[in-house]
Amino acid sequence: MTEVIALKKALPDPSPAEDDRIDWLMEVVLRNRFLPCPDPDSIFVGDGNFQAVGAEFLGHFVRKGGLLPASRVLDIGCGIGRMAVPLTQYLDTANGSYRGIDPVAGGINWCQQNITAVYPNFEFRHLDIAHSLYNPKGEINGLELVLPFENQQFDFIIMTSVVTHLPDEEVSAYLREVKRVLAPGGRLFMTAFVADKVAQENAFNKRDARLGFQRYDEGPCWFVPELPPLAAVAFDDGFLDTALMRAGLSIVTKSFGHWRGVAADHYQDLYVAECRGDG
Predict the structure, then answer these.
(1) CA dist 6 to 142, 262, 278, Å?
(2) Distance between CA atoms of 247 and 192, rounded to whole angstroms?
(3) Please, which residues have CB within 8 angstroms of residue 122's CB and are 6 or more apart in sequence?
């Protein structure tokens, strides 16, 4: 079973009919050859089949995150549309909306040409954030990030495979901005690598062999020695929990993924956190 570490406010289980509809939509995303799909050589957003990963996360967004068809969605680090494409089949065209931002201009250009052209409630914007791997010449310091959106504009914010490529100081800067642009009651869906005791010790030799994290200095970050520092970042268990709390976000769910060798229906660890109405 997936190990759920913290649960503040459980979501009601979907009705059988709703659950069947989610399964059906996931199958549509997986099998519909008319949905936009980039050339394999241009995909820079990680391992796995583009359609299959997108379909999986559509299910997680709805079942674990509480995403609704009328939600106003912001996808931070939207890449080349892996999360956006399945959401075109779920978000309501009249009331739902999607905004995606990313520092990689090529991915944004592809999304504008292939997704926005067909789904006008989906918009994409290049944000020139400096990153040693993805955008080394970027002009925006991640520590000074200001998202180009008004306060309390979104109901649901996605950060999949974002903090897995950020140093700890930038994580806090991102979360402050997430809190600012989330409407009261809105939710953040975030994936991460958490270096808990099981992941560190790997006693049963079941952890993903590619992710032999080692602690970096005295801070909360863990890097993979064979990779560039920001290629994969894990954090001490508790660091992200505290960072979310300090940003004004209340953890709804914290669930460990199967990268560490435990049984789970998701690979990375995931957090769902809710925006408190105060402040």
Answers:
(1) 29, 17, 22
(2) 17
(3) 84, 87, 88, 97, 98, 100, 111, 115, 116
Per-residue DSSP letters for 210-272? T---EE-TTSSEEE-TTS-GGGSEEEETTHHHHHHHHHTEEEEEEEE-GGGTS--SSSSEEEE
**Residue 44 pLDDT class (50, 70, 90 cuts):** low
Q: pTM for this one?
A: 0.91
**CA 129/CA 195 separation, integer angstroms:** 26
The separation between CA 176 and the C-alpha centre of its own chain, rounded to angstroms, equals 16
The single-letter code of the amino acid at 10 is: A
What would the pLDDT profile of 111-135 be if each residue is shown by its tens digit? 999 999 999 999 999 999 999 988 9
Measured CA to CA, the distance from residue 170 to residue 183 in angstroms comes to 22
CA dihedral 38→40→43→49, nearest 10 degrees, is 100
3-state helix, strand, coil in the chain (%, to 5): 30, 25, 45
CA dihedral (83, 147, 190, 206) positive or negative: positive
Question: Cα separation of 249 and 264, whole Å?
Answer: 24
